[in-house]
Amino acid sequence: MRAFPEEEVRMIRVAMLMMAAALTFGAIAPGVALAMDQAGRSKMHFDMMDKNKDGGVDLAEYKKMMGPNADAAFAATDADGNGVISLEELTAYEAAHGGHGGHQ
Ligand SMILES: [Ca+2]
Ligand SMILES: [Ca+2]
Fold first, then answer.
1. Is 10 among the domain residues?
2. What is the model's pLDDT at position 89?
3. Which GO terms describe its molecular function (predicted)?
4. In this structure, is residue 77 part of a structural domain?
5. Which residues are placed with Cβ below 5 angstroms of ligand 2, an ion?
């Protein structure tokens, strides 16, 4: 006999569990979670751009990723103007510009 849809009850229970988990996660510290996400993304971008793994992204490396007209964006990201973008500079730039390098 399958008068009562057991599958449905189980699905509802799973859905409720997922909602509870999402609420708990969101309640911890949305700001921190977002900041970590941004830092993680910038680190990923940085690692992708730093082809020779010397810990800095120079203009040639930057242009390989961002295109040949990226001089202005490079200058904007290279906060101390030493010709190399550090992870800190990239993270700060991406945090201020919504997560991606943009194009100029
Ligand atoms: Ca490099
Ligand atoms: Ca720099």
1. no
2. 98
3. calcium ion binding
4. yes
5. 78, 80, 82
